[in-house]
Amino acid sequence: MLKNYDELRKIDVRPFCEEREGFLYLNWARCIELLHQNGAEIVYFTPVPNNITGSSLIESSATFKDGKGNTNKCYETLIEVHIDDKVYMMQSPVMNGKNPVKDNSMNQNRVWSSMCRSFVKCVAINTGLGFDLWLKEEAGTLTNYIPEQEQKATNAQIKTIKDIGEKHVLNLEEWIKNNNKTWETLTEKDAAQMLNTLKSKYGDE
Questions:
Q1: Mean pLDDT of the region 184-205
Q2: Residues 59, 50 contacting (CB under 8 angstroms)
Q3: Domains of the chain
Q4: Residue 203: how many CB atoms within 10 A of its CB?
Q5: How far is CA 148 from CA 142, 143, 145, in A?
Q6: What phi and psi values does residue 101 have, to the nearest 5 degrees?
Q7: pLDDT in tens, 101-116
Q8: Running DSSP on this structure, what letter comes out for residue 59?
Q9: Whether the model pTM is above 0.85
Q10: Given a cut of 50, is residue 146 above it in pLDDT?
């Protein structure tokens, strides 16, 4: 039998996470594995087909314009999550990081990523497993309204920065010093900004 919500929420999933753009993400396969390790016998998710097209991509009537003035549609996915005798539904936007996917970059991988992210989020909401990861990420959208103490950069963030610096022979120590920081005082926001700068210059690492 799967452990209850409070027990699952206490599990530290960070060692099983990957880092992307300064945030920690729990891989869908790891999520399934952790659920089985904590009592679940059946865990899987399936796409819910679009009633009109039959595909797993839902096309909204809403549109948005990108920086070049191109009009793009908004897309979502809907999945059905099965955990033992319980079934949950989760509908989510198809995103590229924090940005909506544009029409010219829509592909099957984007759709699959959206469903996987939906699955992990659905598990967090309904079972508690990994919930604090989402709590922290969603809180980031409220930083302009709710003052909070900045958290120190994670070891995963620092390691990623140092790995990129070593690969491209960069003087990261000088960079940090010029911004009146040290590795010890670097915040998660600082690290995320550094990673974005490095990745925009050198590409995805």
A1: 77
A2: yes
A3: 5-142 (3.30.390), 155-202 (no CATH)
A4: 7
A5: 10, 7, 10
A6: -75, 135
A7: 888 889 999 999 999 9
A8: E
A9: no
A10: no
